[in-house]
Design a protein that fits this description.
The complex is a heterodimer of chains A (102) and B (371). Chain A has 102 residues and is α+β, with helices and mostly antiparallel strands. Chain A has helices at residues 12-18, 34-44, 84-87; strands spanning 3-9, 24-29, 64-68, 71-72, 93-97. Chain B has strands at residues 3-10, 13-20, 27-32, 37-43, 51-57, 61-67, 75-77, 89-91, 97-99, 104-110, 118-123, 126-130, 138-139, 160-166, 174-179, 182-186, 194-195, 216-221, 229-233, 237-240, 248-249, 258-264, 272-277, 292-295, 303-305, 323-325, 333-336, 342-345, 353-356, 362-370. The chains are: A alpha+beta (102), B mainly beta (371).
């Protein structure tokens, strides 16, 4: 299994928590899925634990969305493989704080 | 020379306000955690440099923060609040069973003798404790496991555990309050709990004298008289002289006995402060006049404190954790409003001035008195 350098864009509040600016590059082995990206993010940046998935349910938080390749991938299973362009690093996996609240 | 440090939680961040004992010239630091809701910030009574903060949003959930340098810098700590065992259900607004779901931390209460131990009151109502400075949290599940637990219902703001009082006289005694379940006490360090709502009367309940279901808004205690508790209930200001075993009403001549905050003077255990709010349907001061009321005799007889406070066209609210007192020789009293003002009285309430006018809506105010 070869490694992948996956690009991830975080929303502003999570960048502040993780103390990063710009994109995050994650080195992933194996299947590249939303779950594997979140696992790697939480390992690299413990301050992000529980911010994307509810720790009690393991589900994506309702106001967090996943975009990539101009598609909303939020409703796919968390263990579903992401598009090849994300796996190759051509496109970023974007974690979005949804517009909500008026 | 002593100093005071006021810890303010708001809808959009935390602020730290500092002054010397004169409490006239203030330095404002913040926002910390800008854009996040900060329900509560509180320092350890044994190590004032150790401060805990509850940070949350509807987007990204709960974050816990700890400062070891008096609020200058902060570090995220553990944020997993897992209910003990199978969580079970409580009653939903419509009376149906609803699974216990963690939403946020409303209140933090650092231990009286160990800076690494801190209690957290959460929504849905439960009491957690950390003994490793916030790294991990464990539920004191005897409270939620009380036989009445499945019948607890949320108040309008959610089913929150918002009051934690640690007894300075008995390390095994803790009093908590939950909206809208009522007050509970443990005398064995949190293993078992009993409702302490005898004497409360709530017209909103089918049985106004029910064992549980009362919407308690806040309870305060003076450390020298730990058996004396003062309560601001949804309606009614109440007093207990037996650590909550029984309550009697002390609303007396208040213009409204609805409100959220209650606190006790640092040096006078019978001097109590409340801030009347018009009603449960009008969350602003009666007549548009912002008035703190003080009783010097433990209730019943109240005097309005108005000097320096707006006495016309004031329609802010003062939320349950937004009043505090310092312990300087001349006791300072503080409160914050949903309009973003934080007021201080450096003379026990006789006169007031605004430290800040334009913060985000204030959720909580705590004060540290520093040597």
């Amino acid at each position: 299994m070869t490694g992948h350098a996956v690009r991830v864009v975080l929303p502003a509040h999570l960048k502040t928590l993780a103390q990063v600016s710009g994109e995050v590059i994650l080195a992933l082995d194996g299947d590249v899925t939303p779950a594997s990206i979140i696992d790697a993010l939480e390992d690299s940046y413990p301050a992000l634990r529980g911010t994307i998935r509810d720790p009690a349910t393991g589900r994506r938080r309702p106001f967090v969305r996943f975009f990539a390749c101009e598609e909303d991938l939020s409703h796919r299973a968390l263990d579903e493989s992401l598009p090849p362009a994300v796996i190759s690093g051509t496109e970023a996996f974007c974690i979005i704080g949804a517009m909500a609240g008026g | 020379m002593s100093n005071v440090r006021v810890l303010v939680g708001t809808r959009k961040g935390a602020f730290v306000l500092t002054a010397d004992a004169s409490r006239r010239d203030w330095k404002v630091n913040g926002p910390f955690f800008g854009g996040w809701e900060i329900y509560h910030v509180k320092g350890s009574p044994v190590d004032p440099s150790r401060i805990y903060a509850s940070q949350s949003t509807g987007w990204f959930g709960q974050i816990m923060q700890r400062s070891d340098d008096g609020g200058a810098t902060w570090e995220p700590v553990g944020n997993e609040f897992a209910y003990d065992g199978v969580p079970g259900t409580h009653q939903w607004y419509d009376g149906t069973p609803h699974p216990w779901e963690f939403a946020r931390v409303w209140h933090l209460e650092p231990s009286l003798d160990d800076p690494d131990t801190v209690y957290a009151g959460v929504e849905d109502a439960a009491l957690f404790r950390s003994i490793d400075a916030g790294a991990t949290w464990s539920e004191l599940s005897g409270l939620r496991g009380h036989t009445t637990g499945p019948f607890w219902q949320p108040g309008a703001g959610g089913m929150c555990l918002h009051t934690i009082i640690l007894s300075p006289a008995d390390s095994q005694r803790i009093v908590v309050a939950i909206s809208a379940a009522g007050a509970f006490r443990t005398d064995d360090g949190g293993a078992t709990w009993k409702p302490i709502n005898q004497g409360l009367r709530s017209e909103g309940l089918p049985d106004p004298h029910a064992e549980v279901g009362h919407c308690v808004h806040k309870i305060a205690m003076h450390p020298s008289t730990p058996d004396v508790l003062f309560m601001q209930k949804h309606w009614d200001v109440m007093r207990s002289d037996d650590a909550g075993d029984s309550w009697r009403e002390v609303s007396g001549n208040l213009p409204s006995d609805f409100g959220f905050v209650v606190d006790v003077h640092a040096h006078e255990p019978e001097t109590v402060y409340v801030l009347p709010i018009t009603s449960d349907s009008m969350h602003f001061p009666p007549e548009g006049k912002l008035r703190v009321y003080r009783s010097r005799v433990g209730g019943h007889e109240w005097e309005p404190l108005t000097e320096g406070l707006p006495q016309s066209n004031c329609y802010v609210d003062v939320l349950r954790d937004a009043m505090a007192v310092d312990s300087l020789d001349e006791c300072g009293v503080y409160f914050g409003t949903t309009g973003g003002q934080v007021y201080v009285s450096a003379n026990g309430g006789d006169s007031w001035e605004a430290i800040v006018h334009d913060l985000p809506a204030v959720l909580s105010v705590e004060v540290q008195t520093l040597a």
